[in-house]
Here is the input.
Amino acid sequence: MRGTLQVDPASAVPIWKQIEEGVRRLVAGGALAAGDPVPSVRDLARDLAVNPATVAKAYQQLTEAGLLVVRRGEGTFVQAGPEGQRREREALLAQGAAAYAGLARNLGFARGEAESALERAWTEEKGGKA
Amino acid sequence: MSAIACERLTLGYGRREVVVEAGLEVPAGGFLALLGRNGAGKSTLVRGLLGLLPPIAGSARILGLDPWKDRAALMAKVGVVPETPDVPPAMTLADASAFCGRLRGTWDAAGVLERLDRMGVDARKPFGDLSRGQRTQGALALALGGSPEVLVLDDPTQGLDPVARRAFFREVLGDLAERGTTVLMATHDLEGVETLADRVAVLHEGRVLVQAPLEDLKARFRRLNAPAQADPAAFAPFGPVHLRGNGLGLEGTLAAFDADAWARAGLDPDWARGADLETIFTAMVEGGAE
Amino acid sequence: MKAWVFARRELRENRLVWAGAAFAAVVGRALPWAKGLRGENEVLAAALALHLGCVLAVAGFLAFRGIPGDLGERRLGFDLAQPAGLGALLGGRLLGDWLLAVGSGALVLVPALATGVLPWGKGLGLMAFTGALAAPTLLAAHLLGVAWRARSLWILLDLGLAGFLGWSLDALLNTFFQEAPGGLEVLLFATPPVLMAVLLLAVILPLAWGRTDLARVRRYQTLILTPGLLLLPALGFLLLVWSRAGGPASIRQPLRKNAPAGAWSIVVGPGRLQRPLGFLVNGATGFHTEAPGGPCAFSGDGRHLLVVRPAGEDLEIVDLALGDRILGSTVRMRLPRRGASLGLGAVSQDARRALLILGRALVVLDLEAGRILREDKGERDFFLARYVFLPDGSLQETLPPAKGGARILDPGTGAWREADGSQAPVPR
Here is the structure.
């Protein structure tokens, strides 16, 4: 999980939020499944070279959201089951869609044009892969 | 209770006031990066907080103690990494550790040696023969040997090579994570503290320009990159600093960004990107942004 | 105790000083032998000089190297980051430096003590003396170090003050000797502690106040030194005024040297520093005149006073028999170099020959010809009582009981010959 989590200090998004989203992405992508352990606050802080309090804050948010669970004496684990995973994936998709819609609007395209562009990209992607 | 607090603290030499009415507050477990240009008064402020300089006015409290009056008591709970580590040159770090241990109630001599080993510093070499980076790392190991509640670092990574600098930050970080030490670090190493500090204080010409959680500053500041046809006047409400055209477009820093107002004004969110600490710092001390 | 922790570190950090002292001790023992000066006095003098030099050098070195640089936390930072008070810190380091200075001085004395050249009692006294001297030396060197580092013009004022202190003390002492009042002991006794206190204040007070700004520290030092150094002369002059106004006139017992026979004596005031100031006094008539300066001795019969002029080469012979109209006759000749330490002497009845015991040498002078008739150097001491000038001007020596008999120095040839017994000496 470590290599796939990255922090961009220059980003406008707070670091704890970046970590939170990173973990959410990993859950959505299936890299982390229910029951998997996540690194301790201390280890992750060391690896990302960020303040442990920042990692702790991200973990706290994730725990409150029900994605992680702290088991006393054992560590922190992923709690989200298939249901939670699906929710994360949907949330991620919604996020991407919102970004695309925003871009299209800013570039001055109509909704129909945007949709057809999406359609085209979808088939090209599939065709490319096939 | 705040671990470090000072109010209207004025410090100086003779009649010359170097730090004027500084106010700082670091909660227990916090990490404050004290930023400022050369000569801004960072080292003087650190001296004042360590009880090496009497306050001309105002007060300072570290862990509830007055550093000038109770320096000896305070130093039992504070670890210091000075700008120029000055362990007696003939002493080895092992000797220095034994020496510190004799003066303190709690001392983790094995921990000091282990830490030195981890950083690759020879504990049996006279301090005067160590390289600059090793001296700093040795000073850090000694500062952490007494399990301090507060760690004060005065520009420790100055002149360190990238490897030594990284190792240094890892050690500080490890201690932070293990024991929740409160840290005050005066530094020029903006990149290094960017992800470590949770609070930032900027000292400029002896005065504290700003003291705020880093997250708040990051929320307020944006790096502006707009196309040339954008109207500069549109950015006026967002506190533009160093706004200038570069042929391809407008660039600069926004010191009072507000996402909602930005959206209401119909401006492209892509034009305002996150600002790193260096951008924020430069905008503050050069552009007068507050 | 925290001060002791700092003292220990100082001792450990400067442990090479011991090696240096041990080396100096060996060299000090070997030096007189290498130079052919094998008398016990030379060995002793070498040991004493080495001891004094070692203590002062180590104290000065440590003060310049260790303590003065500590001003400003650039050098003191490590110590100031320790949970120890300033008193423990400075006191401990000073104690360590002092122990090093005194200890290395003692080490240098070891060969002289072990071989019996220096008796233990005197050795311990000497160590106590240099030990007391080492502390102000440390502090003064510290001050000088600060002054030097600060590169401030205040140093001129400080040096001027120190010079004034020395001059005024000397002037005071001289006046006191002539006036001979009491209170001198008080002044002499009070000077070192007051000086120590002033130096300590000048060192520690600025440190406690504002450690970081050297120029400011300097100013405080001068501000403390000025009244401090002026305090001592002021005290002295007050004492002088008081004694002149009829203070306690306890007359000091002056040093008195009586002629073996006759009423003459030399009275010397207590310990004049620069010029020996003494009076030649005739106890019978009350006549007195200023005594000639320089080491002097009455001749064995009390008729003559032998004086070596400070230059060390002129011998003046004062004929006391002339009574109150004293005439001196000066013989110019190259005395052996030990001339300045004139011990005892005798003059023949016709005043044509003189005998001097100079250190461990016996010198017989022909005053008429102005030359040295004979010079004997000996491993043993010469005793004046063994020598007597016979009426014909020859010198007779009574040999030690082990040998028995006597021998006579021929005034013409300057050679010793066996006495034939017919010229028995007059026992004195």
Remarks:
- The mean pLDDT of chain B is 89.
- Residues 9 and 55 of chain B are 7 Å apart (CA to CA).
- Chain B touches chain C through 32 residues (CB under 8 Å).
